[in-house]
Amino acid sequence: MILDCAIIGGGPAGLTAGLYTTRGGLENVTMFEKGMPGGQITNSSEIENYPGVTGEITGMDLMMPWPEQCQKFGLKHEMVNIIKVSKSGDLFTIHKEDGTTQDAHSVIIGTGSRPRRVGFTGEDELFGKGVSTCATCDGFFYKGKEVVVIGGGDTALEEALYLAKICSKVYLVHRRDTFRSAPNTVERVNNTENIEVILNSSPDEVYGDAMGVTGIKVKNKDGEIRDISVPGVFTFVGNDVNNQTLIQEDGSFLCDMSQQGEVIVDISMKTSIAGLYATGDMRIAAPKQVVSAAGDGAVAALQVISYVDELLN
Predict the structure, then answer these.
(1) Structural domains of the chain ordered from first start
(2) 134 a catalytic residue
(3) DSSP code of 112?
(4) CA–CA separation, 47 and 66 (whole Å)
(5) Continuous segment of H or E residues that includes residue 183
(6) Are the CB atoms for 198 and 171 separated by under 8 Å?
(7) For the whole model, what pTM was predicted?
(8) pLDDT digits over 115-152, tens only?
(9) Is 262 helix (H, G, I), strand (E, B) or coil?
């Protein structure tokens, strides 16, 4: 059996795509997700910025009803890792880790990205417990408190400016003596009273207790250690896009990609390959928010319904 649509990835984008494709009339739709559906957001301890959701709710609680809602309309979930997506003629082939394959008329891919870790002691252990990679998601929890931001690019400085509006003080730690950000952004940072810039320094160790982060030790180029007591540490050293499934036998990508490894799409989530759509964090200019990923999934699904209808009729 050839699938009408294969959905790669079971986060908010993939699940929403599954809901819209099946409810929109496609009968053979399978979502391939190696683990339980939900995506990165299931690791978040509290969600406050998803429209319509009030009160305390975890990322896991938010995503719990989504698979059931999708499966109600006929979405199938296959728990397997997809190692490659290829195309020959009008048909896509989904290559599974177990060695089997599945053909499909269209593909919606939403395998997301993962924040790049800095690599200092305690980072992994306290991730989600005071160490964060999303100021928009978690900044409000530190309202009126002091936080540390690590990084020197545009994102790090922009997030430091964002946090400065919420927090009493922001320590901006960068390993070099100059920033790799736009000059006007650097100027804004330097003119913001409650941002203290700490250059030529790198995080050495973040530490805490059962409640989470309580402080971080920062080492400068001379080896001197500065101990900063804060409940929150934000790291912004880039993202690694999960684009492995698009790599072909010759090492090239199935579709056009940016220099950062993100999938290039238009406003309809179309890639350079007919029938292939990319959604969520893996596509260019992604806001990296649950509500945006869900929107991407809906847009791609509506496009797929039209594409498959045209292809088969």
Answers:
(1) 5-115+239-312 (3.50.50.60), 131-235 (3.50.50.60)
(2) yes
(3) -
(4) 15
(5) helix 183-190
(6) yes
(7) 0.78
(8) 889 999 999 999 999 999 988 889 999 999 999 999 99
(9) coil
Q: Which long-range contacts (CB under 8 A, 24 or more apart) does 52-57 make?
A: none
pLDDT, tens digit, for every residue of 16-25? 999 999 999 9
Walk across the sheet containing 76-78 and list its strands: 76-78, 29-32, 5-8, 107-109, 276-278
- Catalytic-labelled residue, pool 138, 167, 255, 296: 138
Instruction: Return the structure tokens found at 299.
Output: 């847009």
Question: Is 70 among the catalytic positions?
Answer: no
pLDDT tens by residue, 98-112: 999 999 999 999 999
Residue 41: helix, strand or coil by DSSP? helix
E strands, 221-269, where? 225-228, 232-235, 239-241
5 noted as active-site residue: no
Closest among 115, 135, 31 to 74, alpha carbons compared: 31
Candidate list 4, 5, 70, 137, residue with the active-site label: 137
